[in-house]
Amino acid sequence: MSATPFDQREGSIWFDGALIPWKDATLHVLSHGLHYASCVFEGERAYGGEIFKTREHSERLLQSAKLLDFEIPFTAEEIDAAKALVVRTNGKADAYVRPVAWRGSEMMGVSAQHNKIHLAIASWEWPSYFDPEARRKGIRLDMAEFRRPDPATIPCKAKASGLYMICTISKHKAERKGYADALMLDWRGHVAECTGANIFFVKDGALHTPTPDCFLDGITRRTVIALAKRRGIAINERTILPEELATFSECFICGTAAEVTPVGEIGEYTFTPAAITQALAEDYTREVQPKAKAAA
Ligand SMILES: Cc1ncc(COP(=O)(O)O)c(C=O)c1O
Q1: Does residue 63 sit in the same domain as residue 146?
Q2: What percentage of the chain carries pLDDT values higher than 70?
Q3: Do 268 and 163 belong together in one domain?
């Protein structure tokens, strides 16, 4: 991965309806999105030039904005076309794609009834979310101090920038202690998810994953569940208590950026990446390729 700062890279960014040079895609410091987190985004990956589940991501982006009480002035079709154009123009067939929508500068206060809604889309190379060597052995997770909040306190189904504040704090603390990421519990103390990915466990040949009632039901998570069903693997979506971690043999996390990443440790608990994690990681790799279908 290049160390060039993101504002100094080459390429094109789609900004409010047209492609512009990468370095010109700037916004004013008095933007509502920056001060009050009125900002939603997506993380997507293109494989072989095609964005995996592009429509689902565009629809989630539109829905996230609605949950923050704003309307993105583009349709899902227009957003899909713009994302495809960005990937084509930037010339990388395998790329991470980042649409982001935010309230502009017309009003600067909690109320933002008349602010313009902006949408930008960038793409860049992002081969592996975790260090490839750590990934092979299974990444190490810390236990986060912050918990996923009660859905009565936040729009928990929005992929909203404000909801990532506690994720960045948790990931930083984990990284400082030598871990790759952190597992977050929810406000009730149940196992929830990582700072940017959902989590699965394996016990006696079956999958166990927390019910997504206060965090993102990831597009990758749903894909993995479909792939597991195709293989006839039983899936238990349920409440998982932290003390149960000792009873699972395998663990992996999944998300657009993380794809399917084996986990070797969560705090004091250890897991051995084995057949089910490997099979689902391979199925996922096949599934995301354009027009390829994973083997049953
Ligand atoms: C907090 C969080 N949970 C879960 C996910 C997984 O979502 P998806 O599979 O749609 O990328 C992500 C990644 O976007 C995330 O940031």
Answers
A1: no
A2: 98
A3: yes
Q: At CB < 8 A and 24+ separation, what contacts does 63-67 make?
A: 63/157, 63/158, 64/40, 64/157, 64/158, 64/159, 64/160, 65/40, 65/101, 65/117, 67/155, 67/157, 67/158, 67/160
Report CA(216)–ligand 1 centroid distance (Å): 6
252: confidence class by pLDDT, cuts 50, 70, 90: very high
> What does pTM read for this prediction?
0.96
What CATH number is given to the structural domain containing 114? 3.30.470.10
Residue 174 host element (H or E): helix 165-176
What value does the mean pLDDT take over residues 277-296?
A: 83
Q: How far is the CA of 180 from the centre of ligand 1 (A)?
A: 16
Report the candidate in 38, 50, 108 with the shortest Cα–Cα distance to residue 80: 50
Among the listed residues 53, 83, 159, 171, the single catalytic one is: 159
Which residue puts its alpha carbon closest to atom 1 of ligand 1? 196
Q: Pocket around ligand 1: residues whose beta carbon is below 6 Å from it?
A: 43, 167, 193, 196-198, 215-216, 218-221, 255-256
Q: What is the pLDDT of residue 295?
A: 46
- 104 and 72 share a domain? yes
Among 51, 198, 199, 215, which residue has the most ligand 1 atoms within 8 Å of its CB, making it the best to mutate?
198
Q: Is 159 a catalytic residue?
A: yes
Distance, in Å, from the CA atom of 228 to the CA atom of 10, rounded to the nearest integer, reads 40
- What confidence score (pLDDT) does residue 159 get? 98
pLDDT above 60: residue 2: no
Q: pLDDT tens digit string along 9-66?
A: 999 999 999 999 999 999 999 999 999 999 999 999 999 999 999 999 999 999 999 9
| Count of structural domains, the chain | 2
